[in-house]
């Protein structure tokens, strides 16, 4: 197996507003998370969130000493918690001897103190794609599967404003206890392309997105930056975006798509948002 790691340092908004498009991508995008037989990770300095993609083929992938060393611990979850959602074929996660069957769009939470983590695909010809987020933790909570039916479904938006969508809260205080990680999945209805509008900020939390189910000849224009000085990123399927606390995070696609959002920071209040009037965006 191969483990590849990169680091993303925190950026002040005055720096981002002077960046070229290529520099924005270098600092705020993770362009390659999934490759067969690889565990690809990005360690961010935004609330110390670790973002990773594991795509096991015929052989299992294990969380090894590379990630433990990265976070300065004996093992990755010594002082961390972890959440994941599978966006590929059926898979398994073996954590400290317990096997969790993780199907398409199923999630899994692993509590602080989990030592050994291994990822498997049920069928190497249709490999699992585990999208993983890990953040610092201060207490241990029980590990558990979160299926799509376990998640809280929210019907949002309107066809008239091209943003009709279903938002599923997977890792959320109303579903299970965690230290700080929030995680969920949003799927746009056919004919809708806008996500997360009206735009908002939450200076108390960072956020990360991974967009997926984008056709090969399509993309999402992800808007970021301060409301009065927005920039954009062109995002393809299975690419991730980092959103600092000072940045809006919304976008529009050339087709409908899905994305997974995750947050870490001072609170777990999903509704703690500072909305930005549409007329104030520049």
Q: CATH architecture, please?
A: Sandwich
What is the CATH C level class, in words? Mainly Beta
Largest sheet: number of strands, sense, barrel closure: 7 strands, mixed
The fold-level CATH name is: Jelly Rolls
Function: Catalyzes the isomerization of 5-dehydro-4-deoxy-D-glucuronate to 3-deoxy-D-glycero-2,5-hexodiulosonate.
Organism: Rhizobium oryzicola
Cofactor: Zn(2+)
Family: Belongs to the KduI family.
Describe this protein's structure:
With 282 residues, the chain is mainly beta. The protein has one domain (2-280): Jelly Rolls. The chain contains three helices and 24 strands. The protein has helices at 13-16, 21-28, 65-70; strands at 2-8, 29-30, 38-44, 50-55, 61-62, 80-86, 91-95, 98-102, 107-110, 117-121, 130-136, 144-146, 152-156, 165-171, 182-188, 194-195, 200-201, 205-212, 220-226, 229-235, 239-243, 248-253, 258-265, 274-275. The strands form five sheets. Strands 1-3-4-11-6-9-12 form a seven-stranded mixed sheet. The chain has a seven-stranded antiparallel sheet with strand order 2-21-18-23-15-14-13. Strand 19 and strand 20 form a beta hairpin. The protein is globular, with a radius of gyration of 18 Å.
Features of the shown structure:
seven-stranded mixed beta sheet, mainly beta, 282 residues, Jelly Rolls, seven-stranded antiparallel beta sheet
